[in-house]
């Protein structure tokens, strides 16, 4: 807890130091917070000489890898950011300050248990690129292949652990502050993010992800994934094929190569939906620093993807609900959107569907009044989330990565081709996928998939049938015994009800006998004592002996 407090104080100090108060909506704050915070932020006035975009980038770099990742995500949303901010944040994609080459060499030798001179014919101590989690060096294998060597930053796990603890502290505070905070499920979101970013620190897992993504697109002309050299890869080091291509953010170079930018943008959308719906395994960190373009065929440019540390997946239920929701949006079927949200549990079961439908329509219909190419899916999501607060819609942690990736894809696509129509590009793909899920082809695929399991269970079917019938027979016997017991109990209760007056009279007789008898005069019985004894005997008979 104390560590989290110090980290929070550092964040506040960073906001003051870099004059990030320009991003704070002071008009929405209470007056006492507005004036206090304004006075504190004035301390960092010297930093105001730099432009706001540069100050934001430097602040994120100083706060560490989690905040750099946040800046990378923001850098792809040029449709939401001013150019000066987007240009500066774009530098976070592969221009984070590097750590010394001799430190990287020591990490390589420690992990691979051999000197660099034995591992590689050539090794460049000067990094080719440096990012928030790792940096990359060029090298040549003794067999002649040109490769890149990715090395995890030293002591990065400690820094990330501190930030994760701080995020948990803030998440619990948000969750306990209000119902809206609980609806956002901040603790679950941080847990999901922790799992994701800790996976990013293990290059052995990234190598495995790269191998699977490569197999998924082996025969595709949409995406190329470089080869991993497994003998030279470990937890802190990964060696892979060195690729040649134009960075996707280098618009000038792509135009000089006569690349069809419309085709390139649409292919990016197609790759995303193919990964999500066909493979159930998608690259969830598709910022421009991780994407290159093979321009050998400029009319049909091919993407090259690197850095497969953060991958996402959805189960069949989530994919189905997502596809049906998107198609319903395309068709403006807001009633179906509302019903799907209730059916999937994204909003409580008792939510009035007609009211939810009306709220969704009020958000989406004005957007559809624009040309489709001008509609931002990111703006739709923001509007829907704001509307759904009234209906207690909860954040779905399993969809956070997907939403982030979709926003990245839209931002990147609009950067390549400003007139990109995400809706028109995605709709045919989703319709085809839905028809495949519902049609006879899907049924036959499921039969083929389940056939080996069914064949293995076939010899057990007679025994299973006999066991089921035996259990059914025993169940009938137990039901008969229970019925008889209930009937007997009913008779006893009826009999007991008939004797209730006698029992009550017996109790009254005993009580009367007790009250009129003098225990000290039992040796000299009087008339009252004899009457008392008679009452006692009558009461005993009525209470105990009478059936």
TrEMBL record:
Its EC number is 2.7.-.-. Residues 472-499 form a coiled coil. It holds the Pfam family ABC1. It is an enzyme of class 2 (transferase). Residues 91-340 form the ABC1 atypical kinase-like domain. One of its GO terms (cellular component) is plasma membrane. Pathway: Cofactor biosynthesis; ubiquinone biosynthesis [regulation]. The active site is at residue 285. ATP binds at residues 128-136, 150. One of its GO terms (biological process) is regulation of ubiquinone biosynthetic process. Keywords: ATP-binding, Cell inner membrane, Cell membrane, Coiled coil, Kinase, Membrane, Nucleotide-binding, Transferase, Transmembrane, Transmembrane helix, Ubiquinone, Ubiquinone biosynthesis. One of its GO terms (molecular function) is protein kinase activity. The keyword ATP-binding applies. Belongs to the ABC1 family. UbiB subfamily. Is probably a protein kinase regulator of UbiI activity which is involved in aerobic coenzyme Q (ubiquinone) biosynthesis. This is Probable protein kinase UbiB.
């Amino acid at each position: 807890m104390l560590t989290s407090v110090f980290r929070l104080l550092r964040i506040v100090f960073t906001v003051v130091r870099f004059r990030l108060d320009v991003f704070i909506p002071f008009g929405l704050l209470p007056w006492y917070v507005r004036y206090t915070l304004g006075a504190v932020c004035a301390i960092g006035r010297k930093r105001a000489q730099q432009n706001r975009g540069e100050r934001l980038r430097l602040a994120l770099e100083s706060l560490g890898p989690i905040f750099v990742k946040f800046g990378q995500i923001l850098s792809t949303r040029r449709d939401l950011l001013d150019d000066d901010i987007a240009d500066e944040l774009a530098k976070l994609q592969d221009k984070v300050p590097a750590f010394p080459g001799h430190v990287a060499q020591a990490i390589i030798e420690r992990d691979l248990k051999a000197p660099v001179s034995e591992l590689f014919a050539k090794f460049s101590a000067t990094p080719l690129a440096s990012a928030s989690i790792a940096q990359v060096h060029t090298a040549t294998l003794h067999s002649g292949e040109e490769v890149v060597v990715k090395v995890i930053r030293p002591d990065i796990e400690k820094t990330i652990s501190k930030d994760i603890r701080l995020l948990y502290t803030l998440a619990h505070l948000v969750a306990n502050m209000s119902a809206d905070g609980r609806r956002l499920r901040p603790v679950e979101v941080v847990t999901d993010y922790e799992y994701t970013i800790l996976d990013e620190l293990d290059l052995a897992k990234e190598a495995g992800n790269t191998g699977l993504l490569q197999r998924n697109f082996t025969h595709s002309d949409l995406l190329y994934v470089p080869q991993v050299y497994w003998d030279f890869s470990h937890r802190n080091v990964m060696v892979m094929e060195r690729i040649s291509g134009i960075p996707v953010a280098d618009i000038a170079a792509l135009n000089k190569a006569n690349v069809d930018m419309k085709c390139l943008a649409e292919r990016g959308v197609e790759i995303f939906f193919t990964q999500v719906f066909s493979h159930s395994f998608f690259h969830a960190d598709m910022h421009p620093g991780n994407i290159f373009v093979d321009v050998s065929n400029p009319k049909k440019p091919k993407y090259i993807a690197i850095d497969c540390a953060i991958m996402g997946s959805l189960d069949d239920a989530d994919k189905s609900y997502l596809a049906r929701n998107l198609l319903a949006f395309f068709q403006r079927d807001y009633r179906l959107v509302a019903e799907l949200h209730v059916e999937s549990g994204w909003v409580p079961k008792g939510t009035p569907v007609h009211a939810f439908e009306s709220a969704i329509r009020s958000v989406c219909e004005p957007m559809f009044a624009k040309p489709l190419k001008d509609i931002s899916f990111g703006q739709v999501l923001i509007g829907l989330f704001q509307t759904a607060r009234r209906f207690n819609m909860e954040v779905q942690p399993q969809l956070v990565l997907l939403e982030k990736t979709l926003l990245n894809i839209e931002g990147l696509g609009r950067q390549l081709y400003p007139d990109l129509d995400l809706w028109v590009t995605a709709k045919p793909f989703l319709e085809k996928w839905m028809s495949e899920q519902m049609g006879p082809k899907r049924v036959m695929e499921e039969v083929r998939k389940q056939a080996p399991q069914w064949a293995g269970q076939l010899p057990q079917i007679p025994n299973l049938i006999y066991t089921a019938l035996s259990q059914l027979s025993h169940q009938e016997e137990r039901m008969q015994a229970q019925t008889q017991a209930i009937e007997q109990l009913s008779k006893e209760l009826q009999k007991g009800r008939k004797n209730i007056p006698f029992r009550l009279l017996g109790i009254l007789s005993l009580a009367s006998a007790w009250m009129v008898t003098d225990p000290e005069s039992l040796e000299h019985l009087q008339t009252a004592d004899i009457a008392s004894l008679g009452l006692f005997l009558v009461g005993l008979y009525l209470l105990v002996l009478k059936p």
